[in-house]
Amino acid sequence: QVQLVESGGGSVQSGGSLRLSCAASGYTYSSYCMGWFRQAPGKEREGVAAIDSDGSTSYADSVKGRFTISQDNAKNTLYLQMNSLKPEDTTMYYCAAEDVVRCHRGFGYWGQGTQVTVSS
Description:
With 120 residues, this protein is mainly β. 0% of the residues lie in helices and 52% in strands. β4 (32-39) and β5 form a beta hairpin.
C-alpha cells in the first residue's frame, strides 16, 4: 500500500525558508514520478514542482528560482526546499506519487498535506 507522509511545514516570515519532506513507503520509490502541489481553501490545486524517475525536474513559474525539488532514493524521501518565501505561498502543500508508466495521466497517490504559513 502506497503511503506518503509530509512534514516540515510551519510558520515563517516573508523571505524565510522551509524544507518540506515526504516519506514514501509501499512501493519501489525509484520507479515513480513525484511531485509537490498546493491548494488554498476555495482555490484550484496548483502544481508546484515535479521530479521524474530520471531526475528531471519542472517548476511552476511562480516558484522558479525560489523552490527546489529533490529526492533521496536511499531514504525513499522527496524534498521541497523553499527559499525567499512570500505571503502568497501560504497554503497546504501536498506530496504526490505515481508509477512512472502512468505519470502522463496524473498522480494517483497523495499525502495528507502540511501547512505552510508565511507572514509579512
